[in-house]
Amino acid sequence: MKSTPREHKEALDRHAKLIQHLIDEGYDLLDTDDDGLSDYSEYHIHKTHWYHNDSDDDGLTDGMEVLVHLSDPMKADY
Asked: What's the pTM?
């Protein structure tokens, strides 16, 4: 499930608008895909998919790759 950066940004913007009434802090603490990385950090820092917990489909969640293995969550670890 790959998307262009523009599609990714548009989806995240729609997501932020939908949840804006639920949280005051914004999406910096929200973790939609429950991978251990906030939606904000996935979009702005790691360039991963905030709605898919394994952006490179290698069997490791994005959070595991970033926080434990110190690897790139957009490149498969085979």
From this structure: 0.67
Closest CA to 52 of 70, 67, 25, 73: 73
Other CB atoms within 10 Å distance of the CB of residue 9: 12
* Two tokens, residue 56: 């490179």
pLDDT in tens, 6-23: 887 888 788 777 766 555
The residue behind tokens 């994005």 is: 62
* DSSP E strands, 1-78: none
Within the chain, how many helices (H) and strands (E) appear?
Answer: 3, 0
CB 62: neighbour CB atoms within 10 A?
A: 25
Q: How many Cβ atoms are within 10 Å of 33's Cβ, its own excluded?
A: 19
